[in-house]
Amino acid sequence: MTERDPTLEPFAALIGTWATEATHPRFEGVMPGITTFEWFDGGHFLVERSHNDHELFPDAISVIGAPEGGGGLVMEYFDSRGVRRTYRVALDDGVLRMWRDDPGFAQRFCAALGHDQFEGRWQLARTPGDWQDDLSVTYRRRD
Prior knowledge:
By secondary structure, the chain is mainly beta. The chain has one domain: Lipocalin (Beta Barrel), CATH 2.40.128. A ten-stranded antiparallel beta barrel has the order 1-2-3-4-5-6-7-8-9-10. A hairpin with a 6-residue loop joins strand 2 and strand 3. The two termini are 30 Å apart.
């Protein structure tokens, strides 16, 4: 394969370094951090790395690309706590969505992308359909 998967093309808008500010309903204040998005060699996968300046929030690395079987895109997530999760991911009409439908711990994220700034919100459901706000993150482009 020599050409990038066309479903990844919208993700080019994320390439670069972003300063982040996160808030969480269980914690006071704002947690600063840094997130980078870059193409993996060959351009067939997007790599996201995040670092948070608070010991209770994990650092993470994620890889976005086509799944082994089936259509769409997946994000394989790994963090400094040893957590590993697989999310479905889509970026359509400037809206980034990530989700996992585990019946005991479902999660979803949504953000309308801007060129230099955007805000996203994670929600979780410990029981099906009972969505609660979780982490909110503001991204500001640094380069």
